[in-house]
Write a structure and sequence with these properties.
Elements: H1 12-44, H2 49-64, H3 67-82, H4 88-114, H5 117-125, H6 130-160, H7 172-183, H8 187-220
Helix pairs in contact: 1-2, 1-4, 1-7, 2-4, 3-4, 4-6, 5-6, 6-8, 7-8
Main location: membrane
Domain ABC transmembrane type-1: 19-208
GO molecular function: transmembrane transporter activity
Length: 221
């Protein structure tokens, strides 16, 4: 085995900068996905049929097509159709945020439906408006149920974020490719950023397990 990590040493600061780019992109995409996912989840449980149909169709499209296809579509189709020269970063945020919303909407919908129906019936009997009931009673309880599943979505999004390298976003993966092209050795930089991805995912997984343990303790108390 012929490995020479000495050649990538001068490039380590350059590759480490990709951590910030990756985390920033994942954080923004998650905010977009969570906000839109919450709206879609409320559409899915609404008694208004057009809202049901829209949310169901949205989820079917974004869960039924490859994420990389959605990414490429935003990056290439928007300039072609609108003339707007969209940046790679914005394309990535839109594609990942809208895709994540489809999955998060299912997580939140399941969490809402897991809340005891008696809570809803009691609020309605007391004349609590639907919006206030959702905001103050149902959603806070649903969030407690769905936190572990949301952490899994965060982990998945962090790993899949490497796809943005295909549209030249200078994330961890793209920086490893740049270094590999510069030194004509690809395995070492890929192995290095692979370790960084593993550390990030391991950290998120540990946080997820801590949250689950605390939730179990609170449920038992």
């Amino acid at each position: 085995m012929n490995l020479d990590f000495g050649q990538i040493t001068p490039y380590i600061p350059f590759m480490l900068e990709g951590i910030w780019v990756t985390l920033k992109f994942v954080a923004v995409a998650l905010v977009v996905g969570f906000i839109l996912g919450t709206v879609l989840a409320l559409f899915k449980i609404s008694h208004i049929k057009p809202l049901n149909w829209f949310a169901t169709a949205y989820t079917s499209i974004f869960r039924g097509t490859p994420l990389i296809l959605q990414l490429m579509t935003f990056y290439f189709a928007i300039p072609q159709l609108t003339g707007y020269d969209i940046s790679p970063f914005l394309s990535a945020v839109l594609a990942f945020g809208l895709n994540s919303a489809a999955y998060i909407s299912e997580i939140i919908r399941a969490g809402i439906q897991a809340v005891d129906r008696g809570q809803t019936e009691a609020a309605m009997a007391l004349g609590v408006p639907y919006r206030q009931m959702m905001k103050d009673i149902i959603l806070p309880q649903a969030m407690k149920n769905i936190l572990p599943a949301l952490m899994n979505e965060v982990i998945t999004l962090t790993k899949e974020s490497a796809l943005v390298s295909t549209i030249s976003v200078l994330d961890l993966m793209r920086r490893a490719q740049v270094v590999g092209a510069d030194i004509y050795r690809n395995f070492e930089p890929l192995l290095f950023v692979g370790l960084i991805y593993w550390i990030m995912v391991f950290g998120l997984s540990t946080i997820g397990r801590m949250i689950e343990r605390r939730l179990k303790v609170s449920d038992q108390s």
